[in-house]
Structures are given as structure tokens and as C-alpha cells.
Design a protein that fits this description.
It catalyses: tRNA(Asx) + L-aspartate + ATP = L-aspartyl-tRNA(Asx) + AMP + diphosphate. With 442 residues, the protein is α+β, with helices and mostly antiparallel strands. It contains 13 helices and 18 strands.
Length: 442
Amino acid sequence: MEFVTGVTQRDEWSIAELAGAPEHSRGKIRGAVHNIRDMGEISFLILRRYDGLVQCVCEESNSGVSLRTLKEGATVEAEGVSHREARAPGGTELCLTGLRILSEPVEPMPLPISKWKMHTSLEALLNNRPISLRNLRERAKFRIQETITRSFRDFLYSQNFTEIHTPKIGARGAEGGANIFKLDYFHHPAVLAQSPQFYKQMMVGVFDRVFETGPVFRAEKHNTKRHLNEYTSLDFEMGYIDSFTEIMEMETGFLRYMTEELKKRCEKELKMLEVDLPDVEKIPCVPFTEAKELVRQTYGRPIRSPYDLEPEEEELIGKYFKDACGADFVFVTHYPSKKRPFYAMDDPADPKYTLSFDLLFRGLEVTTGGQRIHDYPTLSRKLKDRGMSEEGMDQYLSAFKHGMPPHGGLGIGLERLTMQLIGEDNVRETTLFPRDMNRLEP
């Protein structure tokens, strides 16, 4: 009888181990053929791995290894001797003594993924997504995105949050409106979740502080560079707050932590994409009405929508605070109650506005959050004032009937945050497999 006792350490190098190996050490390394450069007597085989590129040197006359039939995209196990070479990626190359082919492609690459820039259309990149992501620059975007998500988790763990996982199929949406995907659920009407909002609030009564990273679905008929119909939301909800400003403070703490983690974990990717990390030491806050008036006075743009910010206004608010105080982020607070969900807490000083905010990053909204109503009588009254029924919200409302602490939270659009951070102008560029009005594949 055999037993599995854990992870077996494989007899192969990582790129860091190759770089740290003594000169002329023997070892193996595995990867995919990224490029082959035939220089006559000597050929260079570039392997692509999760941790970067490896340069292998092949002298066919001495090593007995031939690269003549090897194709781009093949996966191989290379065996050889380490050699210091300043021009090689990582400063060390592998002089081949053996090569074992693990798999071979049956078609040529549809895109020039070994090029530094592929110079092709976004449509072509998305149509060939499993292949285009093998390009180093394309892959780098999602290394950065992974670090953003990791930072969100790690920071909130350090602040005593509990990670939760909420259902994405429900009986009704958390925010109402028509932007809901409807589906048949065993002959019962159901919807895809617009957000985990109701579940986050209910779980504040259990764990005090909760967070989730997961997909949300919006059936919005938008075909813009900033909208998706499925995106990843970084959500948290925190209880026992004294003010909605504590939520903004928590997000600022996360952004500061994220920036430091990006510096540590993504140095190569940041350099590759020429990313200018934002300054997050302090973030200015401006009330909604004041922000709109600043745009009107400074840039002469008339106020057309009194209850929400238009995309051009977001851009101009970002420009104003960048010029005025060098800020990449700005919190816009106290949004009109008319444009916020029923659970948003109204400002006691002026109930026409809410204790809520958006965070703009370089002129684009990436976060919506605020304080929630935590007592049942107020919540019930607001539902009635809006002409809404409590039917179908029994489980949600029961949490408030049995006591809830003052609480609030937010949701961050991961793809938008990544897009603004790395300087892309289309959110599909920072989505692994985008879902919009026209795209269901790959």
C-alpha cells in the first residue's frame, strides 16, 4: 500500500535557484519555448515560465542537442550547466546538455506573443485570450492585479476581518432597478447577484467585520471603455463604526498597504509596464455639491445632472485635485439620497444627502461605499417612502429586527482599479476574460 504524505520536492531549478547556483552547476529547468534565435554554430533557446524567462545556450556540435525541429509553444525539460552571463535574463544562462520535449503544438501561434509589443487590436487579443496572455506584457497586468487582490485580503485579515463567500444566485437584487440578469432556477424566477450587499450586512451581525472578493453581475446595456457586465468586486463591511469616515480611512489603509506590496512583489512588472504608482499618503475629501460647483467654476462646465456625477465631471474633479494638491485619489462624499440605494443612511444634518462616498482614481470612479441604516424602523420607513415592498427581503430584514450594530462598507471594482493603476484606457485590457454586451467567449 502507498501513502501520499505531502508535496514532493522536484529535482528542478526555479529561475532564482538557477541565478543563485554556483558556476558550472548541473541542473534542470522546465518551461515553454518562447523564442529561438539561431546564430549559426550557437543557438539561443528562451524558455517562458511563471517566474520569468530563461536563456538556454545550445552548441549542437558539442552538446548533441538540436533545436532545428523545435517549435514555438512546445514545452520542454532542459538540462544543462549554469553559466554567468550578464546579458541573459537574471544574469545566468543554462548551457544545454540535454533536452526532453514534453509536448508540441500542432498549429503556429496566431499572435506574435514573443514580441515585446504585439501591435494588434484589442479584439484580436480577446479572441485569442488563452494565447495572448502568454505575452509577457499582457501577463504582467494580471500579476499586478493578483497582488492588488492579495493585498486586499492580507490587509483586511490584519484588521480582524473575516472572509466570507456569498451566493451569486438569488431571489432578488440587492439594489433594485432593471439592471438584473434573470434566469430560471428549477422553474422559479431567480437573478444573478448585483452585489453581495445584503449578505455582507447580515454577516456583520455575526462576525462584526467581513469581506469578500467575487463576481458581480450588471445587466446594463453599456458599451463603453469603463463598463463590464461581469466584474470582480472587492467588498468589505465593518460594524461598530462611529462615522462613515472610518470606511474611507480603512480603504486608504488598504491602498497604502497595496502600494507597498506592489513595490515589493511586482518590481519587474511595474518597470515593464512603466507604471507610476500613486501617492496615497493622504486623500482629499470633497462633498458632492461642492465638487460639482468646483467643476462649474473652474472649467466652465454647466451642471446638467444634479443627482450624480457624469464621466466628464469625474475626469475634471480628478484633474482639479491633481493640479491643486498632487492627489491621484479623491473621495467625493454626501451623494444625494435620490441616487443611493434604500439602505444608505441619510445625513442627519440634511436628509437630502447620504453618509456615502465614491472614490475617484485619476478621474474615474473605482469605489462606492458609505454608512448603512442599521435600525429596522428607519429601514422600514425608507422602504415605504420609496414605494418599495418588504416582500422577498424577509431574511435580510430579520437581521435588523433582531439587532444590528452601526455599520458601513464599500465595493471596489478590481478591473477598473487595475486599469487606472497601469494606465490602460479600456477595462477589457485588465479583465482576463471580459463579459460585455457582445462577448460570451472565450
